[in-house]
Automatic annotation (TrEMBL):
SUPFAM superfamilies: P-loop containing nucleoside triphosphate hydrolases. One of its GO terms (molecular function) is ATP binding. GO terms for cellular component: cytoplasmic side of plasma membrane; cytosol. Keywords: ATP-binding, Nucleotide-binding. This is MinD/ParA family protein. It comes from OM182 bacterium. Transmembrane segments: none annotated.
Amino acid sequence: MTHLIAVCSGKGGVGKTFISAHLGIAIHKLGKKVLIVDADMGLANAQLMLGVSPKSTISDYVLGGKPITEVITQIDEGLELLAGASGDANIVNMPLASLSDLCHVIETIYTDTVVIFDIAAGISAQNMHLLALCDTRIVIFVDEPTSIADSYGVLKLLHKSDHLSETYLIPNQVSNLSSGQSFYEKMNSLCLSFLGRPVGYLGSIEEDKAVRSAIRSRKPLPYSFPNSTAWCNIQTLAHKVMEYDSREKTPTVSN
């Protein structure tokens, strides 16, 4: 069964793409087939995090008419990337029907695969449509007022569209796991107070200098800093995602 996961954030610059790419690698290392889709249609950079140079992008599929299997970049056996287009204005405002078609094609071809959509920051119609199409939604945020406010905005819209269930938070760049849990509890308290619903907690990622070094070298953490704290955190998250996947898309919301 295909499991569609959307990774999003209310605000840019919180580590969303880095987490999407590394979560994909970590899940693949657990023996699962993984497809990473760079759904930041206008400013794609997942390929930089993964250290690959795609020959084709999603534009070649949507606008060029190529079969999706011909525009996929193989990173490893069972680990693939559908690269986004960078600086292509024609793909930025992709019709919602085209996004639905994309998900349908992926589900048809990539059976028994975890598909991770790295969605652009913000609450555009395209972003919210993709979030609704996915089975699981992950919201990345950091301990900054703008990030917290914008993340709550995403959660509020998900609640309005009845898609807050199977939505999980990941506090990023936290000083320690206890503070990450605390940041989550504050956000969950907001949801309980104003939305009347809890939001799930997947786990936290600690601040780690290895992350910046890995990005600069275009070499993912497991191949550059395999013992780094951030990579250990991400592996823990991957185990939780796989646990949820094994429950046939019905994870228990923790709060």
